[in-house]
Write a structure and sequence with these properties.
single chain; alpha+beta; four-stranded antiparallel sheet; three-stranded mixed sheet
Amino acid sequence: MRTAVRTAGLVLLLAGGGAGAHAAARPEAGSTCTKLPAGKRVVKLNLKPETDVADLVAWISAITCRQFVLPDVPASHAKVTIVAPSLLTSGEAYRLFLDALDSVGLTVYPDGHFLRIIESAKAKTYPIPVIGFAAGGQGG
């Protein structure tokens, strides 16, 4: 069974979609978001050519249940074209999303409960936390 949902020129196709998978894609579902099954290839990406970055962000937010802040910067008006005919896991879809953002000079960083999208060239001036291991901590 497949479920297709169209929003803003985007098509989210969920293969074998149960109720939980369909709820994650419905914009009218309100603030409730149900994550897709981890590790299962249930997402088919079918974006129109030259999709607005804002539409791409809305699409990935519906799949991952993550909340994004997209400021009005020149790069946020960029357009991307993604061709991915195979089913993807939600993790693969998110990595593809990050690559698409990178292709137009944008990146993502955590900011409290949200993920903020910023221009990659300006990332060094933002208060982005650095995560690493302390000396004598875990690691090789």
